Every structure is written in structure tokens, then in C-alpha cells.
Amino acid sequence: MTRFHSYSRSLGVIAGLALATAAGHASAETRGYVVSWFGVSTYYGNESDCPDGLNPMSTEFYKRELIRLGYSDPDATKLLKDFPGNPGRADGEYIKIMGTRGDKKTNVYAHPESSYDPGLKEIKGKFAYGFNLDGKTDSPISFTDPDTGEQGIKNQYYRTLGCIRSFRAPPPAHPTLAQAQWDVLRDEMPAWLIEISGITDPKNSDNVTVTISRGVDHISRDTTGGVRSDMSFKVDPDPRTHNVLHGSIKNGVLTTDASDIRIVADPFLIPEFNWKQARLKLKLNDDGTLKGILGGYHDWYALYWSYAESGWVEEHSASVDMPALYYSLKRNADAYPDATGQNTAISTAYEVEAVPAFVLHTDDKNDKKVSDAGGSIQVRHVEEANMGGWLRKLGW
């Protein structure tokens, strides 16, 4: 009888521990998301953004370059009469000329310094989205956040790109180049995933962990062409795709501490992003979605090459004068100087949007995470929080 009572008492203690553990875990929620939009963050204001005007279309700067190379106005006009030619085929004579327009023999996209600096018209307005990456509020390159009024925002990437027509669009529309790139990429490359764990209150949680990773699965589209929510995605175990950040949620806005962030992407855009001192600011919307900014310092030459690798295709279709872009990025780079004093990184900001998703970890069958948006089923990570689990741990 004593042994039976002892067994019952032990069983009761174990049951109590299991319930307490389950309650403790359940009080901290984990939400999973799949990125539905990612693109360069640009502020669309009035004419004060670009008081010198917008940068010329490719037909304009191509004609300018042809005349500089010695062609007469009528001849330059004739060379461009069939612009843009057959998409994807370099069958226009002007294309061959533009490809070596620096010294007439070197590929100008691979070697932009074979060309002079044509001069890119840059943003001169005072507003931009991003972060105060260097802690200085009175720097001459600082912007002001147009929504919060925060000063000291660093976003030299936007300063460089913001007066190029294909990077401008009145909200809520996305700029044409970013829209075209992302629309292709989200079908071609594995999905990007975000998890937020340790949420005790979706409006205010002092300590949360944010994991950014890449999946092995691709997104699915809904009937509108957007990214379908509440789909399941397995996490890619490749450590290059795994980032763990500390953050907090205040008034429904998640912010993370500065950290390096690395995301494998696609050669169509860039093989991989590699930010230094990066951080996230994401609003947890009532409909279960996320929307906000990822910002940090990034190797400026890698960003240049992400456009220049396609050569004339992107230059003539998106009106991005590649040598002008190169010199502007180099000039506006604002961090991590090399031995010569030339800054190797530029401050950036990217728009991020995400919808609820199931994030599955193949290395842990118990590790299942899902958002609770829209009344969907909540699955919380409760390790061994059942009687059988506790008994197995004790060898019973």
C-alpha cells in the first residue's frame, strides 16, 4: 500500500510539473511568416526629392553617349530608331557601342571605371526610411523618418537610386524595377521565412527572438497573384540561411538589436545579401501580417553588380545608367573604409512584408510553429509537455 501511495504521489507530482511546464510554454507564443514582398525602400515625396529633376531615360543617355563618341545627331537618332529592339537579343548596333562606350574596347558594365562619371542626379530631399545606423543625428547625410520624425536616418542607397524613374512610385504602388524583380524571384527561389518567438503579448513583449531563414519550398500564389498565407514551409538547414536576432515589441511594433544578417537570394537579384549592423522594424498588423523595414550597411559594389551583371538588358529597360550608378554608389558609400580610405559599405533600407505561415523544422519533430492570425489554429512549441513524455524522460 505504501508503494502504491508513493507511486500515486509521484505520478501526481509529474502531472503537476507537466501541466506547469505546458502553461509556462503556452504563455510565450511563436508566430511564423513567409516574406511576401521585399524591395528597396524609397520615399515618394514631392519635387523637393529631386530638385535637379529625374535622371534621363535610356534613349536620352544613349543618344548623349553616341554624340560624345563622335556620332552626329542624325546618325545617333538613326542608331536608336528601333530601340529597344528584340527583347533579350543584342541585335541593335547601338547595344554593341554602348557596351564598350568607355574606352571603345572594354566591357563597361564589368569595368565601369573605363568610363568617365556621367553624373547621377541624386536625392536632395530630407525624408527617407531606414535607421540611425551610426548614432549621429546631425550628420550632413542624415534623413528624417517621414512617419515618426526620427532624425539621423542613414540611407545612402536611397540617395543614390531615388531619382531614377524605375525606383519611384506613389504608394501603395511598388517601383517598377523592384516589382518586376520580385515578381519573378518569389516563384523561382525558395521562400524567405520569419519566426518571432517569446511573444507574451503581441502588443508589448520585452524579449523576443526573431529568426530569419530560407525555406526549401517555394511560395504559392492566391487568386489575386499574391503570396498565399497559412502554407507550410520547411527550413533550409544550411547555416548561411539562418539568422537569430534579439528584439522587443512595443505598441505592436517589433524592433531588433543591431546584428549581421545574411540571406541567400538568387543571382537574378543578388547571390546573397550580407548586411552589417542590420536591424528590423516590423509592425504586427491586426490581420496577422507583418510590414516594415530591414536596414543596415551593405557592400556597395555587390549592389552595383546586382544590376550591372545583366549589362544592357537592365540598363536599357530600367533606364539605369550603369557607369553613373557605379560612381554614385562609390561616392555615397558611408561605412567600413578600406586601407585607402574608400568606404566599402553603404547604408540601405528595404521594405519587408510577410503573411502568416507554418514554419517546419525537420531536425525537431516537436518544433512546429504557426501564426494565430485570422482565427487559424495555434500550435505552440511545448517540448515533452504530456504525461507520456515525462514518463519516458524518467525511463518509465
The order of strands across the largest sheet is 1-4-5-7-8-10-11-13
Distance between the termini: 20 Å
Q: pLDDT under 50 segments (min length 5)? A: 1-25, 365-396
Q: How many helical elements?
A: 10
Q: Overall mean pLDDT score?
A: 86
Write the H/E string, N to C.
Answer: HEHHHEEHHEEEEEEEEHHHEEEH
> Strand fraction band?
25-35%
Instruction: Quickly give the structural class.
Output: alpha+beta
Estimate the global geometry from the Cα principal axes: globular
Report the sheet with the most strands, covering strand number, pairing sense and barrel closure. 8 strands, antiparallel, barrel
Number of strands: 14
Helix content: 25-40%
- What is Rg? 26 Å
Description of the structure:
By secondary structure, this protein is of the alpha+beta class. The chain has a domain at 29-49 and 176-375. 26% of the residues lie in helices and 27% in strands. It is built from ten helices and 14 strands. It has helices at 2-26, 58-68, 73-79, 93-99, 156-161, 176-188, 300-308, 312-318, 322-332, 387-393; strands at residues 29-40, 143-144, 151-153, 192-199, 204-214, 231-234, 243-250, 253-256, 259-266, 270-284, 290-299, 335-337, 343-360, 368-369. Strands 1-4-5-7-8-10-11-13 form an eight-stranded antiparallel beta barrel. Strand 7 (243-250) and strand 8 form a beta hairpin. Helix 7 (300-308) runs antiparallel to helix 9 (322-332). The radius of gyration is 26 Å and the shape is globular. Mean pLDDT is 86; it is low at 1-25 and 365-396.
